[in-house]
Amino acid sequence: MNNNNTLIVGSIGLDTIETVSDRKESILGGSATYATIAAGKSASVHLVGIIGDDFPINGMKILEEATVDLSNLDQKEGKTFIWGGRYAEDWDNRETLFTELGVFNDFNPILTDKNKEVPVIFLANIHPLLQLSVLNQCNKRKYVIIDTMNLWIDTEREKLKEVISSCDVLLINEFEAEQFTRRKDHDDQGTVLQSLGPQNIIIKCGSKGAKLYSGHRVDTVGVFPVKNVIDPTGAGDAFGGGVASSLANGETMIESIINGAALASLTIEGFGIDTIYNASINEVEKRKEHLRTTLNS
Ligand code: AMP
Q: Does ligand 1 lie within 6 Å of residue 176's CB atom?
């Protein structure tokens, strides 16, 4: 196996997104989809997930293009995961309109022998029990990165704690960090979250950038200035995909958050996966150059 492999598990779905100026129905989405498209630009992605028999052929083509291994992508009779979200004018408040797990309801993946050996594992946002079941099958773990969301903090706190305790890098946004730790201060949130196990905590702060708590160090990265935000969906997942692909390429934690921030900035410039899918490596590199100048400033 090459040495820049990363295993990604999470949702693959069809999203309906409403912004103040537009609405798109049943477009390709899902945490693993965004993460895979982002990570696939520089790493070899092995995707773990499930789709229904209604999944569009074009979506399949995009997943094939972004990955090297789809042996753990199942297609079953039934409905693909769907999610609907609505954004307020300031982008900060997103309301979930519906979530239907569809074929994810009884998804219990058995990893292929090859996938069990992938060293960098990104457990993108999905039910913590599914994250745990995939993680428990991985036997050559070098880096385990996890992302989550408010829903699981509310409903599956204990299982989520279990996943967090076995990971090396926790990705969490600032609202979720407050919800989980019940602390307002980022430094306090970082300390509480590190005490659960992971040495690296990345707190994503939207348009304010991100903070990395790594051992006793704290580093900050800003954002790439995006002129026109079109749809922020998937920014967090693309960020996570960027962290995973950097680590799979042997880069440092700091470089990994720069890569994550560059890929996130590309995601929000278009609807759904449009801009992140079409972004060139050159554009990603250009954004990373800029983001390096924002480190700890
Ligand atoms: P983000 O904007 O980074 O929070 O990610 C948005 C993506 O997460 C969308 O494409 C949704 O399909 C997916 N998503 C939303 N809710 C869930 C959920 N409960 N489990 C898994 N994926 C979800």
A: no
